[in-house]
Design goal:
The protein contains 5 helices and 6 strands, in the order αβαβββαββαα. With 183 residues, it is an alpha+beta fold. A hairpin with an 8-residue loop joins strand 3 (63-71) and strand 4. It is globular and about 50 Å long.
Length: 183
Amino acid sequence: MSQFNTEYILEKIAEMEDGQNSMSDIFYKGEVPGDVDPALLSLIDMADVVTVMDYADIGQNGYDAFGVFTFLPDVEDDPCRILSIVITLTEEVNPVGIYDLYQVMNRINVRIPGGAFVISDDEKTMYYRTYVTLPKDVSNEETLKNAGLRVFDSIAAVNDWIDVLMGLNDGDLSYEESIKIVS
């Protein structure tokens, strides 16, 4: 079975950034600068290669977000590889309105075709997460098309809903206003 090159795919994902609204880096295990966040360093150690993107000016109100793209460890007998896509909206979830945020997030999640907006277990980080299953026996180019579409879908989902979620989190939107937008 021929296998696509995960490093090549992640490098091409890094090249998808436009240079105006996003910046990307690719990190390889053993070649990581000393100032990398410990959580990202742990992920790089596990996955070997990680692409990260800083997005600026997402949504109508110009929020920032941080994307992390990597392949989960390979399972030899599995005919597929799994690409993990995580885009962080904020690491400062407002605990005062968290119940309302969960309610609005739930309403959004039933409307998007894949992935989900979630809040971390410690209730501090809000992010969008999805996984893409990619057959190993497909060419690099075909894999890149499939992976690229899911990356763009993920960014589009964040772009479509970041104003509502961050507006509610920051107190710029009320729960009622958020529900009206989502409905």
